[in-house]
Recover the amino acids of this structure.
């Protein structure tokens, strides 16, 4: 069981960062739960992010200087940590999106050709 | 770059973990609350919503674990965990730990000790500015490639004038200087006559006063002297007004112009320096008197080879100009260190370094075996850890951390041990008095780095194999078999055997070396002088040239001293140039019916200069003829006494008494009288040093009347206390010349024991022997442990065999078979290596041949016996097993 979780996390590792960055770029500053809810909504419920996966990812992005976390208050007036993109995060997003697009195009062509 | 930043943050993340934990938990709790609210909105009951949120988002504690891993430095955390665990394991198996630490500490201490000495003597920079550019310059005789002779003053001046490749050439002669002044009793110091530019070349300046100027070093200049810091402090109470004062140096009134820095004793142990121009006139005048040591500072970008070529060109020109004196003189440029560190030291120390490395390897092999054995016991624990998800890398890391901790403990113990050992060795080598001033056996950064490196390498060496071996992923097998006592796979047993063979192969190499060294030491001690040296006192006296310039002055002094010694109460005393074993002046001997030529193969003899009663002092008798004429220099032919061996060799079957001989220098000239008449035959007393092999040597004794040397010694036999004898001798000398100090006053046996080569061989030889014995112990313990362990593991099998009717003989063979194989293989490899080490040590040995079959056989025999007795105990234990008890215990 531990192994399956591990495998899932590995798959996510590369794409999760990109997804988080894109979400923050689209919606602006968000707290952790909002990011998770948004990703779940976009994926139609397919992507349910465990806290143990999401928050270490956010911390990693913060440590790398791609996002910045600030304490603020939610609509319901509760204290929460809001994450927003830094300039470096925006650049990184652009780079990774290009790389992803290229990769996706290659995959599409490849898979389409085989089908 | 990004990862760098991440790691910086992670490092920061190790600070103030509690506050950060609180914040993170708050964040996670909010997440769960919001998730639960969403669930409720979707129609869940409040309780169900909380449960559902927990399922979707996961638990807080798991998330916190993941966050902490991301936040801090995982390797540091893990390392601390590993260290704590390792410490627990080491305390749990404290006997194994103790055994391993002791073995490794001995190995590490041996390496530290030898490296501290090697560093001080061979590696550390000489205390000069840009030490690599300072080279020693000498001349060589024949084809020898080392510095064998010095430079004459005249040659030095010509070299200095013509040389292009050096920034400058300096020269000096270290000798003894008697200092006298109005205030304190005369004292004798080691001092040097030195060229005025020398300190400038070394970039050393006086701390007080001025350096020599070129004008100080001209004939007729006012004599000046620079004094060392210790002389300034001890004799003049650090009084700055000593500058400008006139003191008597070897009787010459000299003006003190400066004080050199503390600890500066160039070239080796000098405390005073005077310009070269104050050297005795005969050294300044004769192109043949090659008594100076020269050195130079290489010019910018000049290699030592270029400098040597330049110098050779100049020397060749001089040889053409002065063929009489310079025909065979070839200059040689060598690293400065070579002047102070003899060839024996340069060849012995690297060998010792290799020896201690081998000792450490053996200690590592032993500890590796210990860990392999323990690994078998621990395999269950490790299997369990792997089964619940620990990776092999983690297990290896854990085991290596244990090894590292072990090595660090051993390193600390070994460090303390080596500090003590270095102190003992340093004092045995003569301490500060006996060695050049730049050799100090202290710990510096290089020694420290070496020790740290040794510890690290050690940990890897003994830890890696057991770690890789233990972490082999055969979980199921391990779990299945771990409960039984048959653990220890075939492969790890093979490793253990391999390590023992390795040790057994190294042991004979060290033992042979140690045995040869021991034989050398014994040979040197037994190399009898041929006389009774007990109860003999020894003292030296030097006649300064200033006060005793001419031969007649010195002859007069010796006559007066001899008369006083003859009348001194309670002792028999004589004047002699050298002590037994103390060498002599080398001469070529020619019979009266031979023509003197430059033919090189002449009987080489040692010339001793002695006064009357020399043989009486040693309780010896002249074999034939008489000793009496020894002080009488007669015109025409001076009397000479030959030792028995020489007489029999040069005049076989003839009566040598009354025959005449000539004694010449290697170049055919004779500095003394041309002819000597043989007046007597003396018993054989050994004069040659032990370094030139075991052969007997020819000695000729001439009188002080014939050869009035500027230095002499007094040998005195007395039953009185040494201090009484010393006082009597001092009184006799003072009666003749109140300014002359007597020095090196000691028992002759002590002098012989302290002679350089004996000390070197004794100290280094003893170290070698000690290391060899340690190696033997390590190998024996290793073989015993592996055999005993293997036997213990096969207890069940043996029990079954005995139950089925195996006889004692079979059991014996079963247990010892593999040990016997290991012994046989190890010994065969080792004996080949042993002949190798014997060759390597050839140049160091005295009176023991390198390919000594007795030694080799003895070593092989000893090892076989010790090795077999190491498996005796386990075998006996196995033979006495009670099968019923064994089988029941399973």
């Amino acid at each position: 069981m531990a192994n399956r979780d591990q495998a899932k996390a590995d798959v996510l590792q590369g794409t999760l960062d990109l997804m988080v960055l894109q979400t923050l770029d689209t919606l602006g500053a968000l707290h952790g739960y909002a990011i998770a809810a948004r990703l779940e909504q976009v994926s139609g419920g397919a992507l349910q992010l465990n806290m143990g996966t999401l928050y270490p990812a956010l911390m990693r992005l913060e440590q790398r200087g791609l996002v910045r976390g600030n304490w603020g208050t939610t609509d319901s007036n509760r204290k929460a940590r809001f994450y927003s993109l830094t300039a470096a995060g925006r650049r990184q997003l652009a780079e990774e999106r290009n790389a992803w697009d290229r990769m996706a195009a290659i995959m599409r062509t490849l898979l389409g050709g085989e089908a | 770059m990004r990862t760098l930043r991440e790691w910086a943050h992670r490092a920061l993340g190790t600070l103030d973990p509690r506050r950060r934990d609180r914040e993170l938990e708050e964040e996670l709790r909010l997440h769960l609350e919001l998730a639960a609210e969403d669930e409720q909105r979707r129609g869940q009951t409040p309780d169900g919503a909380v449960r559902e949120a927990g399922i979707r988002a996961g638990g807080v504690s798991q998330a916190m674990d993941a966050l902490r891993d991301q936040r801090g430095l995982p390797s540091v955390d893990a390392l601390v965990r590993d260290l704590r665990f390792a410490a627990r394991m080491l305390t749990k198996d404290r006997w194994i730990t103790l055994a391993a630490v002791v073995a490794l500490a001995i190995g590490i201490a041996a390496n530290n000790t030898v490296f501290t000495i090697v560093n001080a003597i061979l590696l550390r920079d000489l205390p000069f500015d840009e030490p690599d550019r300072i080279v020693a310059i000498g001349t060589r005789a024949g084809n020898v490639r080392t510095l064998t002779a010095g430079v004459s003053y005249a040659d030095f001046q010509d070299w200095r004038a013509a040389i292009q490749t050096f920034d400058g050439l300096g020269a000096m002669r270290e000798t003894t200087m008697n200092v006298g002044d109005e205030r304190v009793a005369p004292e004798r110091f080691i001092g040097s006559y030195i060229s005025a530019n020398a300190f400038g070349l070394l970039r050393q300046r006086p701390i007080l006063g001025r350096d020599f100027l070129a004008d100080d070093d001209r004939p007729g200049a006012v004599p000046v002297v620079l004094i060392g810091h210790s002389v300034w402090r001890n004799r003049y109470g650090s009084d700055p007004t000593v500058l400008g004062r006139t003191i008597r140096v070897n009787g010459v009134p000299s003006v003190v112009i400066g004080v050199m820095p503390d600890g500066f004793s160039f070239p080796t142990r000098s405390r005073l320096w005077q310009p070269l121009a104050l050297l005795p006139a005969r050294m300044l005048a004769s192109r043949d008197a090659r008594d100076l040591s020269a050195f130079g500072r290489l010019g910018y970008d000049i290699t030592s080879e270029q400098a040597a070529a330049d110098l050779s060109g100049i020397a060749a020109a001089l040889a053409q100009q002065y063929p009489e004196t310079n025909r065979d003189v070839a200059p040689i440029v060598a690293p400065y260190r070579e002047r102070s560190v003899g060839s024996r030291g340069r060849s012995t120390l690297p060998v010792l370094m290799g020896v201690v490395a081998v000792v450490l390897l053996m200690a590592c092999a032993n500890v590796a075996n210990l860990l392999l054995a323990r690994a078998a016991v621990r395999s269950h624990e490790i299997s369990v850890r792997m089964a619940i998800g620990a990776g092999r890398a983690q297990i290896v890391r854990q085991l290596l951390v244990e090894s590292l901790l072990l090595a660090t403990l051993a390193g600390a113990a070994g460090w303390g041990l080596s500090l003590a050992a270095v102190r003992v060795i340093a004092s045995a080598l003569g301490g500060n008095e006996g060695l050049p001033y730049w050799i100090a056996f202290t710990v510096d950064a290089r020694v420290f780095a070496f020790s740290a490196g040794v510890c690290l390498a050690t940990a890897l060496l003994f830890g890696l194999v057991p770690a890789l071996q233990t972490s082999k992923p055969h979980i199921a097998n391990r779990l299945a078999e771990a409960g039984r006592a048959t653990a220890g796979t075939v492969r790890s047993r093979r490793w253990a055997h391999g390590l023992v063979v390795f040790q057994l192969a190294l042991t004979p190499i060290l033992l042979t070396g140690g045995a040869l060294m021991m034989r050398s030491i014994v040979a040197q001690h037994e190399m009898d002088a041929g006389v009774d040296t007990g109860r003999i006192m020894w003292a030296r006296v030097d006649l300064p040239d200033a006060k005793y310039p001419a031969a007649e002055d010195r002859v007069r002094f010796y006559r007066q001293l001899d008369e006083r010694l003859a009348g001194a109460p309670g002792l028999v005393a004589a004047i002699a140039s050298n002590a037994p074993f103390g060498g002599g002046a080398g001469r070529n001997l020619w019979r009266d019916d031979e023509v003197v030529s430059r033919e090189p193969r002449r009987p080489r003899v040692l010339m001793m200069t002695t006064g009357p009663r020399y043989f009486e002092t040693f309780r010896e008798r002249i074999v034939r003829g008489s000793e009496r004429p020894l002080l009488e220099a007669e015109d025409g032919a001076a009397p000479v006494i030959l030792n028995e061996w020489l007489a029999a060799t040069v005049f076989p079957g003839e009566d040598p008494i009354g025959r005449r001989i000539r004694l010449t220098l290697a170049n055919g000239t004779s500095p003394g009288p041309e002819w000597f008449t043989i007046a007597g035959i003396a018993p054989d007393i050994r004069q040659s040093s032990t370094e030139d092999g075991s052969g007997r040597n020819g000695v000729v004794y001439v009188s002080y009347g014939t050869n009035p040397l500027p230095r002499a010694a007094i040998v005195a036999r007395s039953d009185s206390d040494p201090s009484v004898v010393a006082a009597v001798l001092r009184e006799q000398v003072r009666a003749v010349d109140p300014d002359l100090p007597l020095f090196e006053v000691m028992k002759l046996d002590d002098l012989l024991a302290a002679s350089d080569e004996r000390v070197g061989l004794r100290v280094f030889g003893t170290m070698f022997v000690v290391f060899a014995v340690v190696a033997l112990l390590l190998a024996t313990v290793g073989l015993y442990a592996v055999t005993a362990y293997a036997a213990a593991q096969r207890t069940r099998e043996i029990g079954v065999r005995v139950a089925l009717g195996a006889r004692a003989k079979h059991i014996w063979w079963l247990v010892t078979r593999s040990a016997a194989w290991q012994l046989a293989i190890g010994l065969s490899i080792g004996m080949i290596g042993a002949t190798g080490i014997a060759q390597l040590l050839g140049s160091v040995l005295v009176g023991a041949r390198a390919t000594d079959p007795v030694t080799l056989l003895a070593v092989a025999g000893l090892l076989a016996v010790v090795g077999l007795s190491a498996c005796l105990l386990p075998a006996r234990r196995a033979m006495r097993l009670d099968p019923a008890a064994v089988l029941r215990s399973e």
Observations:
- The mean pLDDT of chain B is 81.
